[in-house]
Design goal:
With 374 residues, this protein is of the alpha/beta class. It folds into 2 domains: 237 residues, FAD/NAD(P)-binding domain (3-Layer(bba) Sandwich), CATH 3.50.50.60; 124 residues, FAD/NAD(P)-binding domain (3-Layer(bba) Sandwich). It has 9 helices and 19 strands. Strands 1, 2, 3, 4, 5, 6 and 19 form a 7-stranded mixed sheet that branches. Helix 7 links the parallel strand 10 and strand 11. Helix 6 crosses helix 7. The protein is globular. It starts with a strand and ends in a 19-residue tail after the last helix. Bound molecules: flavin-adenine dinucleotide (FAD).
């Protein structure tokens, strides 16, 4: 791996790759680094998971995403598509290269990189975080320097943990694996948003016995895809999926999980007894958080409850000169998905215009999706 670059993009997700296409078109020398494969965030979704977004909204760099039967794309179709884009534009992507340390230097940035076995995010990352001794010592480190740096690092790096006894047991996971494996199993799904709802429907269909525990009274129809909720409600009404509202696991002890009643705020009530539910697998689908390591190392200010990086909305430049953020990385650890691929394409044009000294593009983000002012 060689030394100096004009620009480095960290993250070969859809937005990092879309920016790379734009830089190739503009003749800006750069490299894209990713700790895993391209599109690695999609790599840990369960096989066959479909995007919620329509294909044209997640297509990048003007390359059509064509899907059979005019349906939503599966993660497999989208990963194939991303690979095709990388080939078509001969994007300078270096996969399985993790930036383990980043610093600001007098003329840009210095990145300490090491070969890696998986992306930042997903079950392997979570396993290593839960047991840091499991993380292999980085060997073969190299320093890459650059004049400009873009963090397209995403924001779903680690599960939002419940921090309860038993959370690290082997039958407990924060990731839905291949639904097939759950056939004939008693599965407790914890959560009440899209991932949990979708998992409940899919696991019911593969013949699992599904119970859902949600800390609220009911699902929030505003936050669940309109085609998922009616089906789940029907399954619950027909008692094909068991629903335990206002409950939360407080301890996992095979073969059961202790579920406590929750208060108005969705927190476990200390004054009420918990009840045991017997199950074979536990899926804690309670969301994901962003790894802030690089942001901290580079001195990026973090704002708000979600600890979003501070950046200029017109240029995507952070409080650190020549350091940009793009894609879902801008949103911090969002509790409600407000930044996703379809409203992050504009980041690419803003960054390119700023890098090349052009006027910022006029397109405003869709108002209902925009973030509050930084
Ligand atoms: C089940 C599910 C369904 C979803 N459906 C949709 C949908 O329908 N529409 C939508 O827009 N979004 C959806 N999302 C969210 C989607 O994953 C993101 O929108 C998309 O991946 C964000 O793209 P990105 O380029 O911003 O970041 P990511 O795709 O997350 O890419 C970030 C990359 O940065 C790399 N990286 C991070 N830190 C480092 C480092 N230190 N060194 C090297 N590499 C690093 C990571 O390995 C990763 O590959 C869904 C998510 C899930 C879990």
């Amino acid at each position: 791996m060689s030394g100096d670059h004009d620009t480095v993009i960290i993250g070969a997700g859809p937005i990092g790759l879309e920016l790379s296409c734009a830089l190739v078109r503009e003749g800006v020398e750069h490299v894209v680094l990713d700790a895993g494969e391209i599109g690695a965030t999609m790599g840990w979704w369960a096989p066959g998971t479909k995007y919620f977004s329509s294909p044209e909204r997640i297509a990048i760099a003007g390359v059509p995403l064509v899907v059979p039967a005019q349906d939503k794309a599966t993660r497999e179709q989208y990963m194939d598509y991303l690979r095709g884009v990388v080939e078509q534009f001969s994007l300078p992507v270096r996969t399985f290269t993790r930036v383990i340390e980043a610093s600001v230097s007098s003329d840009g940035f210095a990145l300490c990189c090491a070969p890696s076995t998986h992306a930042v995010g997903g079950p392997e990352e979570a396993r290593e975080q839960a047991a840091p001794s499991a993380r292999p010592r980085p060997a073969g480190q190299q320093t890459i320097t650059c004049r400009r740096l873009v963090l397209a690092i995403g924001n779903m790096h680690l599960p939002r943990r419940l921090d309860i006894p038993g959370e690290n047991l082997p039958h407990v996971s924060h990731y839905l694996r291949d639904p097939h494996r759950y056939h004939g199993r008693r599965v407790l799904i914890v959560g009440g948003k899209n991932s949990a709802v979708e998992a409940a429907i899919r696991l019911y269909r593969v013949g699992a016995s599904v119970t859902m525990s949600y800390r609220r009274d009911d699902f929030d129809a505003q936050r669940i895809k309109y085609w998922l909720l009616p089906e789940l409600r029907w399954l619950i009404d027909k008692r094909r999926v068991a629903f335990l509202p206002r409950t939360m696991p407080v301890r996992i002890e095979p073969p059961s999980v202790q579920l406590a009643p929750t208060d108005e705020e969705g927190r476990p009530r200390a004054d009420a007894p918990s009840e045991a539910l017997t199950c074979d697998d536990v899926l804690l689908l309670t969301g994901y958080i962003q790894d802030k390591t690089l942001l901290h190392q580079l001195g990026v200010e973090l704002v708000g409850d979600e600890q979003r990086p501070r950046f200029c909305a017109q240029t995507m430049q952070t409080n650190v000169e020549r350091l940009y953020v793009a894609g879902t990385a801008v949103a911090g650890s969002q509790r409600r998905a407000r930044v996703f691929i379809e409203n992050a394409h504009i980041h690419v044009r803003r960054i390119v215009c700023h890098m090349l000294g052009r006027e910022p593009p006029e397109d405003a983000p869709m108002p209902e999706l925009s973030l509050p002012e930084n």
